[in-house]
């Protein structure tokens, strides 16, 4: 019941996040539920009393646990259990809803009750939002290695710990320190993209310039020598060598304007070196222990440095003058890194924290208790998100607002370095065993591993050749297994198809027989209706035929009755016409006109009467022929109707038979269908095994073919890499021999000059000797002769010595000429070979899709 009430309280508290969250109403109930067993007035463990508002604000013996506005306060870190001591130490951790209430209380100004005023943040406000646009990349495509050698400078018996690892800010490129080399990897393909030899020793520090074009590496031989080398990422060539030290360079960076290099080492000194001539421009003695990390701000204005004792300083990059002293860390600095906008510096420490400093006043604006036991590395992404790795064997991804996004725990070993790629989708974690693990940030899943000790190209090609030889047999075996699986599945499908066909046939029979039965019944009904219609029609026709006969009989009877009347009217008409003739032929007199008129009227009336009777008889007699024709037609129709009735009777019997047959088919199929449907699932279930086998066989065939294609692509890739490596090696040898020939040519020219001088001196001395000999033959006193003989002897010795020297020098000149004559064809041959290898390398480039 108590837990239910507490959960209900939390739900209410979270819903009021937009309103005031106070200590009395919302925070104290959480403390009572989870904290007051150890942190009360009677038992103030760690000097912390959370039973009242004043005690909560006072904090513990280690300092304040809450700070107004700072949701990364110690209280939040310990209840999230991301820092020691984890709270509560026993039992269930505080729920996410309760932690949200605590964060809202801190963000809202640590209110005691609803009438309190929010406390102002103790630290000055600083806008920690990223100021620079992370999408404002440099012009042109991101710098990626092009034709850089892939032949490892060293292949060790086993991998060693990775000292440093850094991702390009714009390109999918990761640089990793190796043994006397730096490895460049494509972070999308997870393939080796280049090898940068570092023969001066082991590189231990790496940094890209903000535009991603140059990579500086620092390292050397511990206790003996140190140096930095800057590489052009695109060509892999050494662009600059600077900072000659007497111990290994632990950290280094190249100023974005390429004007200077900064180094830190066990000497505790920060040194600035001028890239133009390699001269040292500053040596800063401020750190009290080894300088372990340094970083130029991306705008090139500041330089941040950290040491093994936890000291952090910020310097003016141009002059080396002190800019900020940042005091807070209690243990060594593992990383000091500027954000891409140069406004915020992050410092990670073995004390387990990462602190963030704004550069206007050097104030700390955020503190994260990131990893109990110590933060071992830190890396920014261009968008302001970042990643940390710690001694607790976890890597954490953080959002630009400093909120935690993803935790990747249970790393295989303690991490030594961490990096996040340019698009913020992958992180790379290196450990003490030399393994480099790749994780997808969104899912937290491990997606690959990079080889820290890659084999030689020849070893790769040998492995690929052996794999290539095995491919045809593997593909053939996979296809054979697929064919067998397909045949087994086909047979099982045929059984299913046969059963389904039988079911379809049974259902079809049921459907068609039912339809045929209904159709036959409908036809019977229709035929019965048609019979009834035909019979009714026959009756109507016969009735109509009788009516026609009655009409003819009546008309003939009426015609017979009219014939006497017509004869009588015709006689009366003729009598009237006679009387008219008589009236017209009577003598003229007063009564004649009246008599003629009366006779004419009588004649006309009789004629009209006769005509009427004739017309009446004609109207009666005229239809008789038509009626007789109708009777004939009607008789024909009646005969047809009787024939149709006979046919319908026959159809009726046929439909009855069809209906019975359809009924029998329906019953038979209806009895068979349930059995077939019951058998079908069993037959279908038998498909599962061969279907799965075929899918697996298909997958194996696809994998075998894809692997064969992959082997071919890789073999071509590494054959091309071998061409490039040989071309570069031959070119270097040609350059070396050319330099040797230049030296030899200079020596030959000097020897030739010496021979000429010796010849001239020899001729002079020999002339002098001949002159002395002639003088010695001339008469003179004995003392002069003795002196002359002594001079001749001395000069003779000088001439002989010159002759021998001339002979030796001439022999040396001839030897040099012979060497030079032999060397020049070698150089020419090597150059031609290098050009041919380059041509083959270019010709072997993959065709654009």
UniProtKB/TrEMBL annotation:
Keywords: Heme, Iron, Metal-binding, Repeat, WD repeat. Residues 524-533, 593-602 have a biased composition (Low complexity). Residues 14-110 form the Cytochrome c domain. The keyword Heme applies. Residues 608-621 have a biased composition (Polar residues). Coiled coil: none annotated. Residues 113-145, 509-538, 563-627, 649-671, 770-789 are annotated as: Disordered. WD repeats lie at residues 284-325, 326-367, 368-399. PROSITE patterns: CYTC, WD_REPEATS_1, WD_REPEATS_2, WD_REPEATS_REGION. InterPro entries: Cyt_c-like_dom, Cyt_c-like_dom_sf, Cyt_c_Planctomycete-type, Quinoprotein_ADH-like_sf, WD40/YVTN_repeat-like_dom_sf, WD40_repeat_CS, WD40_rpt. It comes from the Bacteria. Residues 509-522, 563-582 have a biased composition (Basic and acidic residues). PANTHER family: TRANSCRIPTION INITIATION FACTOR TFIID (PTHR19879), TRANSCRIPTION INITIATION FACTOR TFIID SUBUNIT 5 (PTHR19879:SF9). This is Cytochrome c domain-containing protein.
